[in-house]
Specification:
- With 488 residues, the chain is an alpha/beta fold.
- The chain has three domains: 229 residues, 3-Layer(bba) Sandwich (FAD/NAD(P)-binding domain); 118 residues, FAD/NAD(P)-binding domain (3-Layer(bba) Sandwich); 76 residues, no CATH class.
- The chain is built from eleven helices and 22 strands.
- The strands form five sheets. The protein has a five-stranded mixed β-sheet with strand order 1-2-8-7-6, with no helix packed on it. The chain has a five-stranded parallel β-sheet with strand order 5-4-3-9-22. Strands 11-21-12-13-17 form a five-stranded parallel β-sheet, with helices on one face.
- Strand 12, helix 3 and strand 13 form a beta-alpha-beta unit.
- The longest helix has 25 residues.
- Bound molecules: flavin-adenine dinucleotide.
- Flavin-adenine dinucleotide binds next to helix 1, strand 6 and helix 3.
């Protein structure tokens, strides 16, 4: 297969970071950073891309982030957040996050470990040191990329620019919006007590009631955390504008029999599904999807993972408000699209209603202006970004790279979930057909569908793969119909 000219060992181009001849650019005295790539965003995707790129190509990378350090939104996350899925699926390709341990104690005994916020932040800090020690990466923290190949320090005011040959990498296209950084999307009267979720852990005194606003992972984490601290379920009022479908964490594990078995069950359910609703109910019967309230069919399908023990405790909260989005909160009262409710005068309303995941249109990863990092297989953004780094390092032509890595969307609704599954499966078939990419992907723990060589021959796995092969074609065809995707 053709090797990219910059591949380590055979490369023509040399790394040339930091040739700081000041020049006049955009009307400012500007330091020129002689990098081959400018990665805008040092969150999970920017780090995963850079880590793989520099492991496979002899190039210079400048990373810029308006935050002071690397790790992206995790630097501002609420203190009790954990990854919703196994640590092994998160981070970068070169370095496992955590130790790949199965939990032996606690309610998730038998499931793989999940990192806390501080573990994630420490991991990214260590990685930055590794990237910098490689000599190929320079990090510019507290700097704003302002477009036109230019960024400016928010601290010193110094301006920087990269030359024309430097490729811009957009590593913030899907960056989530979080409650700590966005005000609540409703009016708050002066006499109301509304706090972002981050402040919950700093409360001085308990109120008689908590009002949790939001239907996503942040809200479920918050309810579980309050209940674990002994808050009476009846002291919680949960405003859920939409009901969420969530994935059962037990079937999203770094074990090919478990993960690929879940894929086989999904394809079988899809093959037989009469409608989207029927599909999700079948997935629930198969132990794949979970919903909090069995009497309501959810419409939201961002599908973070949830453990069954969390489901059980969440179901103890009976005061659920389904009157749409909140318009206004005032002392003793909440006005929603579908009516008003009374709350305690001293109630604390916890803002968990950040936009979270975002849904801009899919764009080709390799475009004329930028390399735009997006998921490639269904979900798992860190794997997608690492894969893009590998393909960038090992292929020459953007058309070919785009053929191998068509992007897939993040899901919000049941139809969106079906669409993600179809586009992600098509992408996996495209990149998986290249032997070197398949071999790389099978070594990378970030890839949930990887088959480590030592597991490849097991009878159990062969039986699981047979099931996948039997159901994938009809399952994907039905998912395409349900998700409104053109046949391939
Ligand atoms: C609470 C929470 C939990 C999650 N848990 C998981 C999980 O368990 N597993 C999973 O796969 N996903 C999870 N996600 C989804 C998450 O979106 C992705 O995993 C991933 O972290 C997103 O990384 P990112 O690089 O796209 O964005 P970010 O982490 O937001 O990084 C983008 C960076 O770009 C910087 N930036 C943006 N614009 C500029 C500019 N003009 N100049 C300079 N810098 C700029 C920002 O400062 C930011 O640091 C979770 C999301 C949330 C909110």
């Amino acid at each position: 297969m053709p090797r990219h000219p910059r591949v380590r060992g055979g490369g023509a181009a040399k790394r040339t970071v930091d040739a700081p001849e000041p020049t006049c650019f955009s009307g400012h005295v500007t330091r020129v950073v002689e990098a081959d790539y400018l990665v805008v965003g040092a969150g999970a995707t920017g780090m995963a891309f850079t880590d793989t790129l520099i492991d496979h190509a002899d190039v210079g990378v400048a990373m810029v982030d308006r935050r002071h350090g690397v790790g992206g939104h995790w630097l501002e996350a609420y203190p009790f957040v954990r990854l919703h899925q196994a640590s092994a699926f998160y981070g970068v390709a070169s370095t496992l996050l955590g130790r790949g341990r199965v939990q032996r104690q606690g309610p998730e005994a038998g499931l793989q470990e999940r990192a806390t916020r501080s573990e994630i932040c420490a991991y990214y800090e260590r990685l930055l040191a590794r990237l910098q020690e490689s000599g190929g990466v320079e990090f510019f923290g507290s700097c704003e990329y302002v477009g036109d190949r230019t960024f400016v320090s928010r601290i010193s005011g110094e301006w920087f620019a990269v030359p024309q040959h430097c490729r811009i990498v957009d590593a913030n296209y899907l960056s989530p919006r979080i409650p700590a950084e966005k005000p609540p999307p409703f009016d708050v009267a002066d006499d109301a007590r509304v706090i972002p979720v981050n402040e919950l852990a700093r409360l001085q005194a308990a109120p008689s009631q908590y009002v949790i606003v939001g239907s996503g992972k942040t809200a479920t984490d918050t309810c579980v955390w309050l209940l674990a601290h002994g808050v009476d379920p009846d002291a919680i009022c949960w405003v859920r504008p939409r009901e969420p479908w969530m994935l059962n964490r037990a079937v999203v594990q770094p074990d090919p029999v478990v993960f690929i078995g879940m894929v086989a069950d999904t394809m079988q359910a899809a093959e037989e599904a009469a409608s989207l609703e029927d599909l999700f109910l079948r997935l629930e019967d198969a132990g794949i999807m979970l919903r909090i309230d069995p009497s309501v069919v959810p419409t939201m399908a961002k599908t973070p993972t949830l453990a069954e023990w969390e489901l059980e405790v969440l179901r103890t909260i009976e005061h659920v408000v389904r009157l749409g989005h909140i318009d206004r909160v005032q002392r003793g009262r909440v006005d929603l699209a579908g009516g008003s409710i009374a709350i305690a005068d001293d109630a604390i309303v916890v803002h968990c209603a950040g936009e979270g995941l975002r849904y801009p249109p899919l764009v080709p990863v390799w475009g004329p202006e930028a390399i735009t990092l997006q998921p490639i297989r269904a979900g798992f953004p860190c794997f997608g970004a690492a894969l893009i780094g590998y393909v960038e390092a090992t292929r020459d032509h953007d058309d070919e790279k785009n053929r191998l890595c068509p992007p897939s969307p993040l899901p919000d609704s049941m139809a969106g979930w079906a669409r993600m599954s179809v586009l992600g499966a098509r992408a996996a078939a495209a990149f998986g057909s290249e032997p070197d990419i398949k071999a790389w992907a099978d070594r990378v723990a970030l890839n949930p569908a990887r088959i480590p060589p030592e597991r490849a021959g097991s009878a159990e796995l062969r039986a699981t793969l047979d099931r996948v092969h039997a159901h994938t074609r009809p399952g994907l065809a039905r998912l395409a119909e349900l998700g409104g995707v053109e046949p391939s």
